Amino acid sequence: xxxxxxxxxxxxxxxxxxxxxxxxxxxxxxxxxxxxxxxxxxxxxxxxxxxxxxxxxxxxxxxxxxxxxxxxxxxxxxxxxxxxxxxxxxxxxxxxxxxxxxxxxxxxxxxxxxxxxxxxxxxxxxxxxxxxxxxxxxxxxxxxxxxxxxxxxxxxxxxxxxxxxx
Length: 166
Hints:
Blueprint lengths: L4 E6 L2 E7 L5 H12 L8 E5 L3 E4 L29 E4 L12 E4 L18 E7 L1 H8 L3 E4 L2 E5 L5 E7 L1
């Protein structure tokens, strides 16, 4: 069985992501649950840091956090690295706190990789396989502090849809 694909349609264009269900099965199942529930429709890329990553999947267009399912275990020990174009789960300081938010690495970020139990890292669970130019376009938007968040796009970048791609 091949890895699932999802098409992410944003206000800046589309990109296609391959999900590594063989390496991060719980993370992929969690992500696809949100996809299948249309949870991501209308959420923002609310944290954009040039030369680092773009983050989204949890805040609505009023910058309010959407209610989520319970957190999932961190599968960052799966051997996958936070390389340019990979998608990983966002979380708080608690390594096992990821819910719906994700980020796409716009450069290689080895500091985000799993090291050991005391330096757990961020779980990579997929890779952008087409449309990285759209990710780079999002990365280059003008940002500002807003609503208690740093690096918020001055002009909202929202997710129109994320759907399974056959």
